[in-house]
């Protein structure tokens, strides 16, 4: 059996974190989220993988290369324009000659879920899950264990069963994609509905393992929180006398945790980091490579990506901080329920701090309101309060 991973999309709903990388390369517990898909396939003996790339494809291809260092054989198919998930899958047709799985590259998936599809007796199956927000997905209607209908992103609450976008197909799916494409629809949900109406049986496989995807920036926190609980633990860096580590903690090579620091896992810290004296890091936090956190700062339930600098006496909670962000001293994020404005509209989010895009520069004594979104490459002067949405390259004097 082979597999196709769909990784061509930009992820506009995940801005500002997809300015310079595709959504599948967003780090979750310090690994690109697409790595979890590759790992789940490999652990189930699926070694032949096709990754469909498009937006910022070089970052994916340079990371995986031919797949050998991940124990798999990876080939690439190109989707030149983002015309839909079915169109993306069609680009892999020449590499598929047997039953195969389809996975979205922006999913955190348990290897058990892949096993369920492999073991399914139905040649056409999809993995289903329950969701409190089904309007983000294709909603599933089941008759016993067969999919009777699928409705893409309904505005009304029709069912709490959703398609995860993880499928098992035969090569016959490509004929169905072409037939639906002639009618102008290029999404896999439309293709599945077409197959149902044509009389094909699509089995709905209920997931029993972990599955989660990142649709919006704040989803990164939830997905990361799940991933760090399963991340490998160990100390490869230097822990000074007087630092305290409790629970599941991973410290990367050439990283230093200085005296007086207090870290409670699950926490993942990358390579080449400097965690200053008396810094506190609390659970469900991941810190990327080459991150510097100055003394007396506190980080809680947050994601700090690579090359971030945090000034002294700062407090960051329930926040996502992009690559290369420089934060001055006495920075503070308020976290609470917020109505967040993105390009896709307004979204109510519980217990959220700040979302800060890559390469932004933030001065001393800056405070953010709950749900503040700072775009990429912004410059914020000292002693400012940030709220609402700041577009990329904003300057706040």
Describe the structure.
By secondary structure, the chain is α/β, with parallel strands linked by helices. It has 2 domains: 2-215, Spore Coat Polysaccharide Biosynthesis Protein SpsA, Chain A (Alpha-Beta Complex), CATH 3.90.550; 227-396, Hexapeptide repeat proteins (UDP N-Acetylglucosamine Acyltransferase, domain 1). The protein is 17% helix and 36% strand. It is built from 7 helices and 41 strands. It has a 9-stranded parallel beta sheet, covered by helices on one side. A 9-stranded parallel beta sheet has the order 15-18-21-24-27-30-35-38-41, with no helix packed on it. A 7-stranded mixed beta sheet has the order 5-4-1-6-11-8-12. α2 (57-64) links the parallel β4 and β5. α1 (33-43) crosses α4 and α5 (173-181) crosses α6.
């Amino acid at each position: 059996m082979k597999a196709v991973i769909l990784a061509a999309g930009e992820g506009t709903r995940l801005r500002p974190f997809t300015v310079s990388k595709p959504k599948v390369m967003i780090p979750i517990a310090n690994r690109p989220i697409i790595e979890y898909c590759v790992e789940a396939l490999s652990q189930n003996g699926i070694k032949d993988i096709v990754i469909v790339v498009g937006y910022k494809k070089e970052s994916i291809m340079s990371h995986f290369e031919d797949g050998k260092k991940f124990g798999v054989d990876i080939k690439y198919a190109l989707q030149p324009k983002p015309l839909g998930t079915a169109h993306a899958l069609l680009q892999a047709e020449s590499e598929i000659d047997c039953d195969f799985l389809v996975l979205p590259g922006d999913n955190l998936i348990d290897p058990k879920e892949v096993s369920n599809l492999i073991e399914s007796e139905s040649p056409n199956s999809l993995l289903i899950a329950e969701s409190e927000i089904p309007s983000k997905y294709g909603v599933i209607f089941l008759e016993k264990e067969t999919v009777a209908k699928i409705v893409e992103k309904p505005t009304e609450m029709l069912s709490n069963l959703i398609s995860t976008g993880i499928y098992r197909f035969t090569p016959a799916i490509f004929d169905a994609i072409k037939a639906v494409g002639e009618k102008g629809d290029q999404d896999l949900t439309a293709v599945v509905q077409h197959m149902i109406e044509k009389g094909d049986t699509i089995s709905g496989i209920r997931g029993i393992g972990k599955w989660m995807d990142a649709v919006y920036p704040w989803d990164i926190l939830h997905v990361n929180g799940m991933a760090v609980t399963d991340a490998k633990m160990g100390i490869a860096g230097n822990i000074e006398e007087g630092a305290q580590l409790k629970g599941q903690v991973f410290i990367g090579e050439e990283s230093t945790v200085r005296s007086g620091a207090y870290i409670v896992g699950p926490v993942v810290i990358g390579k080449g980091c400097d965690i200053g004296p008396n810094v506190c890091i609390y659970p469900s936090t991941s810190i990327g490579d080459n991150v510097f956190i100055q003394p007396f700062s506190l980080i809680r339930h947050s994601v700090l990506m690579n090359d971030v600098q945090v000034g002294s006496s700062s407090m960051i909670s329930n926040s996502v901080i992009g690559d290369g962000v420089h934060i001055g001293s006495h920075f503070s994020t308020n976290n609470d329920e917020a109505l967040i404005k993105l390009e896709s509209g307004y979204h109510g989010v519980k217990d959220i701090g700040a979302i800060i895009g890559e390469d932004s520069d933030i001065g001393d004594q800056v405070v953010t309101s709950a749900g503040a979104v700072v775009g990429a490459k912004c410059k914020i002067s000292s002693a400012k309060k940030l709220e609402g949405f700041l577009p990329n390259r904003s300057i706040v004097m």
